[in-house]
Write a structure and sequence with these properties.
Blueprint lengths: L2 H4 L5 H14 L4 H4 L24 H5 L2 H35 L6 H26 L9 H13 L2 H24 L5 H29 L4 H19 L5 H5 L5 H10 L1 H21 L4 H9 L20 H6 L1
Helix pairs in contact: 2-6, 2-9, 5-6, 5-7, 5-8, 6-9, 7-10, 8-9, 8-10, 8-13, 10-14
InterPro entries: AurF/CmlI, Ferritin-like_SF, RNR-like
Organism: Streptomonospora litoralis
Protein name: p-aminobenzoate N-oxygenase AurF
Length: 323
């Protein structure tokens, strides 16, 4: 079966026109839409407890209920930090994508629209960090360096497959958060805005990746698979900063080691990445050495395990559904 028959795409200008129309109808200013003066409800989890990276481990059992809830807030802050990191990379890649293309086209006008969305999202995540009494969890020097290289040398398939990966993983977690009324209200409000607007971004990335990927020769595809594997590995293994564990009194090295071996956390990452894995695997973008990196990052499930962690159905609302 050919890639064309596996991944159907819409006319580039037509889909961009529809996404522009959707952006005009359902875009948000987080500074206005969210009540930033409301206090954070520390009696609630910020994310479902079973999604916390240490859930089910001996370290989890050692924590008090208050510490567990604080860890959930710090892990949300860590996810927001990596969101800022990658959105900054993505904005630069989108500018490069638009640089030598026709700005009068719907396709490039939507690229500019997405850049504006990502600017607002980065500000929203930064304000969330402050409300959660959390630092900006900056990545380690190796990941920072590789991110700088990636944004400078990425080709079309890498730009859009990398964007799709990070956006899909965060989207799955946030869809669950926004639909769960038992969770902390501020994190639910932030998740709702991000889910609605990222639905358009993922449609744009999914189609542009498929359109560009099928044009590339074997050499570029082999190169892209490996570099994508590196991007995925360094992103997925740094979703939770070791310093987040330190904030609740845990030894960061011991806690990080426990999380990386935790079957519940591996299942959560596999569940969160399942849609992007299906999309990219179907296109032939996850194979060879790159596939090993996906598995090592805990995104292809545990060897010998059953299905990935199950999740309650998520409701993203009509705005996200239409995009």
């Amino acid at each position: 079966m050919t890639v064309e028959s596996q991944t159907r795409t819409t006319d580039r200008e037509d889909i961009a026109k529809r996404l522009l129309r959707s952006s005009a109808k359902a875009s948000f200013d987080p500074l206005v839409e969210i009540d930033w003066d409301a206090p954070v409800d520390t009696d609630r989890y910020a994310i479902r407890p079973e999604r916390v990276s240490l859930y089910g481990t001996d370290l989890w059992e050692m924590l008090t209920e208050e510490q567990r809830k604080e860890l959930s807030r710090q892990e949300i802050a860590s996810l927001a930090s990596i969101g800022i990191w990658f959105e900054t990379i993505l904005m630069q890649m989108l500018v490069r994508h638009a640089y030598d293309r026709d700005p009068t086209s719907n396709h490039i006008q939507y690229a500019y629209t997405e850049i504006a969305d990502e600017c607002r999202h980065s500000v929203m995540f930064a304000k969330l960090l402050g409300k959660l009494d959390a630092p900006y969890y900056k990545l380690d020097p190796v990941a920072q360096f590789l991110g700088r290289v990636f944004k400078a040398v990425s080709n079309g398939p890498l730009t859009f497959s990398g964007a799709l990966f990070v956006e899909e993983v965060l989207d799955q977690l946030q869809r669950e958060i926004m639909a769960d009324e038992s969770l902390e209200p501020l994190t639910r409000a932030v998740s709702r805005i991000h889910v609605v607007e990222e639905a358009r971004h993922m449609r744009y990335a999914r189609e542009e990746f498929a359109r560009d990927w099928r044009k590339r020769g074997p050499l570029v595809q082999h190169y892209s698979r490996f570099v994508l594997g590196l991007v995925v590995y360094y992103s997925a293994t740094r979703l939770i900063s070791p310093k987040a564990y330190e904030r609740v009194g845990l030894d960061p090295r011991k806690a990080r080691r426990a999380a990386r071996r935790n079957p519940h956390w591996i299942d959560t990452k596999t569940w969160a990445a399942r849609k992007v894995v299906e999309t990219l695997d179907r296109a032939g973008a996850i194979s060879g050495p790159g596939r090993h990196l996906w598995r090592k990052a805990g995104l292809l499930g545990r060897r010998g395990s059953g299905s990935p962690a199950a999740s309650a159905p998520s409701t993203a609302g009509p705005e996200a559904q239409r995009a």
